[in-house]
Amino acid sequence: MAASVALFVVVSTALASAALPQSPPPSDDPAPRPVVSGETSEDRRILVAHESERPARTNAALNLLASDPAFLAEQVRSNDSDEVVLATLEALRIRASATSPREDLVAAVLERAASDGNGVAMDARETLKTLDGVARDAVRPRLLAAITGEDVSRARAAIDVFARTGDLGVVEPLLGVLEQSERDGALADAAAAALTELLGPRLGSDAAAWRAFWKECTGKSRVRILRDQLERERTTHTTELERKDREIVRLKRELDGGEPVALIANLEHEIAGVRRFSAELLARGFPDVDLAPVRPVVLARLGPSGEPPAVEAAFLRLLAEIDRRAGRTGDDPDRDACVGRALASTAPEVVLAGVEVATAFPTAAVRGAALDALKRVRERSLASTARIALVEAAAPGKLNLAGAVETMRDLLRRDESGDVRVACVSVLGSLKVADTAPDLSHALQKDTDWRVRRRAAGALRAVAGAAAFEALIAAADDPRPEVRSEAVLAVAQVGDPKAVAALADRLGREDAAAVRSAIARSLGALGSPAAIEPLAGLLRGPAGPENGAPREEADAVRADAREALATIAGDDPARWAEVATAVGDAAPDVLALARRRRLALLEKAGADAPTRIRARVDACRAFVAVGDHGQVLELIENAEPPEADADPAPYRELAALEGGARVALGQAADAVAAYRRALAGEGLSPVRSFVWSVGLAEALAADGKAGPALDALPDGAPPEGVSAGDVERRDALRARLAGPEDAGPSGNSAPAERSAG
């Protein structure tokens, strides 16, 4: 491990120094120590580490590395750190001319190049191309041996290196791969792709066509071959487009009569674009036409000889439509063979069509072909869209390929496409294989694409259940709010007893409004009374934008908190009382709803009359605080009449609340009557008598009775306990009714907020 770290430091420094002019070492530094004959590999590692401490000696350290191919081969072959291997390959390319590419070094790099399509493999192939350019006699034989060897992965890697060289000397070996018909089909596809890269034309895996084309190129340089091919393709393409357009216009004109005869006939048209157009239109339209006679033509076109990819895809979909109409849903060897070839294709549009047909007709043969195609997906140069389609086809509800789990685990760790990894995570989660929990946990913590991490949270919860709690709560600290939101939602679903405390702690540290909303929903889903206080804290915060979030996001947080509290309280009056206490006056809207809900539950449960009337008074007070006077009147009108021996105090308070509500709604005469009911009788406290008398005076004044209003106002010093606001109400009303000369010491005539008493 020390050697790995030392190498990484040296090469990282070298990359920086290689891009800058090298200055001589300071005069007080000794000259770089020369390599002494007889030094061991361990001695050289120590020297590398020593030299790396001084950037001025970096070149000496790199020269030392380049002079020890055995050490380089060891690092490339066996180091378990991708970063160190990448750095070593970079050093090899920088110092290629000074490196002696012995057989063991070339073999080690080729081994890395044959690995499964990750960044190290790509770098290794580029390194082989560089070494081939400076030491062809040492590298080329090894690559040629790999092409003809039994190891398909090494053969594909060598073919890819040949495609990168731009050297026409590799054409013959590539043609040899194509002409060996018993070799792997994917290997032939790779050779054809390399030949296309080198020479230009797209002739597929047709060895005879490639051989004829290569014969035409005798004596030409690669530049001349590519220029001639480009000109030929431009002319051919233009001509074909014109012919295709003319034919399709003719077909459309014939179809105006509603007869698909021309379409059926043109499934065998010489122009590929016309065949595609006819197949697509037949698959989409003409539901009343019997397509059964067309099936043999379609199967013939989908045979091993092959159509252009876009045409093949259209014919596959037409075949599916024919069999769907005929009810041919069981095993069918001809159709299954066509689907199998499509799934094994390297053309993305063909693979996509093959997946569509496979999921529509999931026979045993088709499922086997799909599983094989997925297992070999990284051996083919397949576009990410096709890889995604193959992965998603394995999900339950489609092909349900549990046997593809290992392939998807591998793709999840190595595939360069974030979209493919997202698909892998989703399908692994839906398959619910317990062994995949470590892979999903790794993706949740380490994947560089936040979309993968977000999807991994839900998938891990589905696979691991309660065992996923620690990984999910750790993901609540992810740098992306989208991942944090998904993680906290998943935490609620695992049902761990520690979830409420963990989410409440996370809530206190979270800034993003979307994540706060997610935590609120999760706390509500957990249903624990312990979550009432943290949720109430969200409502006790500012009603407007919080932490710079737009108002609509802040409102969403509060709405989710309210809904969560309602979920927790459920049908328990005691919990609704706890909610009301927790939110207090800081959230008057929630307080009002909580008290009304508690009242409804108490009435439904048949609570005793004193409890019910006290709850009704509390609910009315809460609705007064939010200014909903209509609700106040509704609650009062629905109140049960007092029993003979009932305590009159709460009923008098309801009358006072009714008086205030009716004043606010402009019902002055009814307000006067309500206040008089509230003030009637004995035993009224001085504070309530003062406050309700002011209310009566306001109602009389609103009814146009200034004199009685002045008479109703309480005189003298207010009793202890009366709020300053109620005193201001009295003095303001007196000043307004009597004029400034008769106003009391507080003659302010500005309206004041009415008290609920």
Which tags fit this structure?
disordered C terminus; mainly alpha; 757 residues
Fold topology:
Layout (H helix, E strand, L loop, with lengths): L1 H17 L22 H12 L5 H9 L2 H10 L3 H13 L8 H11 L5 H16 L1 H13 L3 H14 L5 H9 L5 H15 L7 H10 L5 H34 L5 H5 L6 H13 L10 H7 L7 H18 L6 H11 L4 H13 L3 H12 L8 H10 L11 H10 L3 H14 L5 H10 L3 H15 L4 H7 L5 H14 L4 H11 L3 H14 L5 H8 L11 H19 L3 H11 L4 H18 L3 H17 L3 H9 L10 H17 L3 H12 L6 H17 L3 H7 L11 H15 L19
Helix pairs in contact: 1-2, 1-3, 1-5, 2-3, 4-5, 4-6, 5-7, 6-7, 6-8, 7-8, 7-9, 8-9, 9-11, 10-11, 10-12, 13-15, 15-17, 16-17, 17-18, 17-19, 18-19, 18-20, 19-21, 21-23, 22-23, 23-25, 24-25, 25-27, 26-27, 27-29, 28-29, 29-31, 30-31, 30-32, 31-32, 32-33, 33-34, 34-35, 34-36, 35-36, ...
Q: What would your notes on this structure say?
A:
The two termini are 78 Å apart. With 757 residues, this protein is an all-alpha fold. It is built from 40 helices and no strands.
CA radius of gyration: 41 Å
In the predicted model, the low-confidence regions spanning at least 5 consecutive residues are: 1-63, 741-757
Structural class, by secondary structure, is mainly alpha
- From the spread of the alpha carbons, the general shape counts as elongated
Range of helix content = 55-70%
The total strand number stands at: 0
The description of the largest β-sheet is:
none
Distance between the termini: 78 Å
| Mean pLDDT over all positions | 81
Strand content: under 5%
| Tally of helical runs | 40
